[in-house]
What we know:
This protein is of the alpha+beta class. Helices cover 34% and strands 19% of the residues. It contains 16 helices and 21 strands. The chain has helices at residues 14-26, 55-61, 66-72, 114-123, 138-143, 168-181, 227-231, 298-308, 353-367, 375-402, 409-412, 414-417, 422-430, 450-459, 476-496, 500-509, and strands spanning 6-10, 33-38, 76-78, 80-84, 98-102, 163-165, 185-188, 191-196, 202-207, 212-214, 217-220, 236-238, 247-254, 266-271, 274-280, 284-291, 319-322, 326-328, 332-333, 336-338, 344-345. A seven-stranded mixed beta sheet has the order 5-4-14-15-16-13-17. Strands 7-2-1-11-20-19 form a six-stranded mixed beta sheet. The chain has a three-stranded antiparallel beta sheet with strand order 8-9-10. Strand 15 and strand 16 (284-291) form a beta hairpin. The radius of gyration is 23 Å and the shape is globular. 50% of the residues are buried. Flavin-adenine dinucleotide binds at residues 10-16, 37-39, 42, 44-45, 47-51, 168, 190-191, 221-223, 225, 227, 248, 250, 288, 321, 323, 340-342, 348, 351, 353-354.
Amino acid sequence: MAHEKTFVIVGGGSSGWMTAAFLTSVFENTPHKFVLVESSEVPSIGVGEATVHSIRGFLAACKIEEGRFLLESAGTFKHGILFKDWNQVPEGATIGNQFFHSFEQYPQIAPEHMASHWINATLGGKNTERYDRWSGVQSILAAGGKCPKTWQDTAYQAPVPYSYHLDANKFAHFLKEVATARGVQHHVKHILDIKQDDRGNITSLVLEGGESIDGDFFFDCTGFASVLSRKLGATFKDMRYLLSCDRAVTIRVPFADENHAPRPYTTATARDIGWTFEIDLQARQGIGLVYSSDHAGAEEAERAIRRDFPQIPDDAELNHLRMQVGRLDRAWNKNCLALGLAAGFIEPLESTGLYMVETALRLFVDYLDLEVRETALSNRFNDIFNDLFDEAADFVFLHYYLSNRQDTPFWQDDRYNKQCPEQLRALLDLWEHKIPTDTDPTNQHLIFQSPSYAAILYGMGHLPKHVPQSVAHIPPEKSMEHLAQLQRIQKAAITSSPIHEEFLQKYTATFR
Ligand SMILES: Cc1cc2nc3c(=O)[nH]c(=O)nc-3n(C[C@H](O)[C@H](O)[C@H](O)COP(=O)(O)OP(=O)(O)OC[C@H]3O[C@@H](n4cnc5c(N)ncnc54)[C@H](O)[C@@H]3O)c2cc1C
């Protein structure tokens, strides 16, 4: 029988309420108490609307119904990300100017990897179509406005991996309702300080007005301020040496055309001073320009986003955000775990923000021992968390590093052109000879698997020097036959998949 413990969560943004919903599910029917404190003086960031496919497992672990989540969060389905203009290519070129990064594994059609057959057919002069036409069915479903789920699929299941777009404020509000209904005590108070025991563990939080809240374990979900972690003396690893984008300007707008059907994918378009995201929810879009303060100021960014998206009303106020790029050295420090922006952040190009929250929470319960304070557990947690975070940073960096854009000072930035993290460089050397496979990385803890690396490499036109050895003896025509086979599978998938918007309406209707 577990002894009663008190878990105190500080922060009422997405990460705070995700923590509350998750812990109350995992520790259901235990005597533990849960408290969440947020400040009325510090608003939550209110952005963070695209997720990756592991979120389904997280929501299921929180014992949340999928249809209700979609309804309450104004959510839509996501097959992946469409990248536009990340390369400058000759007019008419079909490879390198646009690509889709889906959540799919390599399709298993031929004895050899389909990626190798695509390279064989392409280098053999038989194929001019983009890699994502061959990488499975998901890019085709996305382009056709089809849903990843079929009518037969149960909650969180589908023939292809998928994730969601969600309204960040509605999502946090929904999780708040879930968590408070499960008994989480909610306080709106500003935290001024912490009290610690002689070993440095937090014993209580000092609130405005002099009150205090005692606890056994604390979660720092205070956004970029990292209030508790900084008071515990955590150090921050700044990653702007790798990724220059540290500002964003965002807005929520109605669809430009009232007949616009929400797209089941995120769009990330490279721009002169950074890149923009478009995220379609059920009845509106989230738009943002992510840029570097080294190359543009807020006014220039605002002019740029208004120019790129004329549907933004002239009198609409835009949301200007500063982003702290990097991570804490120890997200889990003493009896405190930092989550979300408080633990670290890199630009949202691959939607890794909420992913890091859910992954950290799952890892945390795996490495937790509430009866003894054992630093070997938190040390291991931190090693894994840091590996995952650093890989995400390398993966985002890869998009810039592979780009041949040199047309503006942003794209000429030395960070993207001269340096490459050692681990990534070693992988790129391998991939000059072979396709990415999961045995390539030496790091065991990865967010992105080999098909993701292939999507970016081949999407941006970085093929191996030669046809991979496993297919070098196969005539390119034969590789084209495998494409024809995949196309038949794609056609069947298109036929059996419902229209995204129709599915959403019917799927959420029972929860209205
Ligand atoms: C431009 C942009 C786009 C993004 N897009 C994505 C995306 O597409 N996908 C994705 O997964 N992630 C994305 N993110 C990241 C995502 O927004 C965050 O990971 C997510 O919202 C979690 O935020 P948070 O809860 O950690 O912090 P916040 O939302 O900032 O919440 C902080 C909370 O702490 C409280 N607080 C602060 N100080 C105190 C104090 N002293 N006392 C008490 N309470 C306090 C505040 O009141 C607030 O409730 C994006 C981020 C940015 C900047």
